[in-house]
Amino acid sequence: MIQILELFGGIGAPRCALRNLGVPVKSIDYVEIDAKAVRSYNAMFAGELAYRPQDVRGWNLTPDVLVHGSPCQDFSIAGHQKGADPDSGTRSSLMWETLRIIRAMGEWRPRLVIWENVPNVLSKHMRHNFEKYLEAMRGMGYRNACDTLNATDFGLPQNRRRVFTVSTLGGKPFDFSALTHRSMTPIMDLLEPNVNARQYQVRQPSMLDKIGAPRGRFRGYVPIITDMAQTITTAQMRCPNSGVIDTGHGYRYLTERECWRLQGFADADYEAALSANPTRPGCMNGVLYRQAGNAMPVPILEEILTKTLN
């Protein structure tokens, strides 16, 4: 039985990965401040103790595996690279709470710590925080390994690059080259047929003007999805987004279900989250888009956990 702690847990991608692998797992706690994400998590894992929203600050326990996807906004270019210095007060500075939690465990240490973040964490402006994190983990006895992984290499037709850091307690560092890549699923297998609802049609002139290759005075553009989507974002009705579908008589946005599928979640997971956060008639469900965009790709976690837990 693996005991897992999910910090900044979102909708529970690590838990889904372990479930899909058939690994007996006990979530000794799940920490997420977004009440709507907590509702989805509780609905997806029926029968579990109903978790309540809680802040990562001031928390501790003793897990075997700790997974944290601390907020990435202030590392990203879109978030103006505000950074994560310990005294900055940014959302991304909450990464230091993970280190505080591990230290507060006393002699206990999780044997595996996984951290996921945006590629810009390795940029010249942000890398000093990344190096401080690695140094702190080494000081607690961990061997660190990191690599930039793309969801396209793990079966998902989504161009999503993220930095994964795997820290193991003692022994050899994790070998990213041992990960098994999967052929990309045809995107048509994940798209819903006959999506005609008005709310998914691209009708805003500001969006229509940006569809296709970059041109004119517009700095951004909206790609047309052919073989893969771009990174699943927390909202679709914006530029940049994950791309749009050419229906032959116009363009449409990805549906909420499609975004969940493109992150590797099962339809049953989506249906559970939908039951907890219903869609208003005639509207797009911003809650479910945001939860998909903030999640980690489940197949990547499956592969990392397969190699680390065997």
Automatic annotation (TrEMBL):
* The EC number(s) this enzyme carries: 2.1.1.37
The source's superkingdom equals Bacteria
The signal peptide annotation in the UniProt record is none
Active site: which residues? 72
- Reaction it catalyzes: a 2'-deoxycytidine in DNA + S-adenosyl-L-methionine = a 5-methyl-2'-deoxycytidine in DNA + S-adenosyl-L-homocysteine + H(+)
Q: Which UniProt keywords apply?
A: Methyltransferase, Restriction system, S-adenosyl-L-methionine, Transferase
InterPro entries noted in UniProt: C5-MTase, C5_DNA_meth_AS, C5_MeTfrase, SAM-dependent_MTases_sf
A Pfam family that the UniProt record links to this protein = DNA_methylase
Keyword Protease present in the record's keywords: the answer is no
One of the protein's GO biological processes: DNA restriction-modification system
What is stated as this protein's family in its record?
Belongs to the class I-like SAM-binding methyltransferase superfamily. C5-methyltransferase family.
Q: Which PANTHER family match?
A: TRNA (CYTOSINE(38)-C(5))-METHYLTRANSFERASE (PTHR46098:SF1)
Record's protein name: Cytosine-specific methyltransferase
Q: What organism is this sequence from?
A: Bifidobacterium pseudolongum
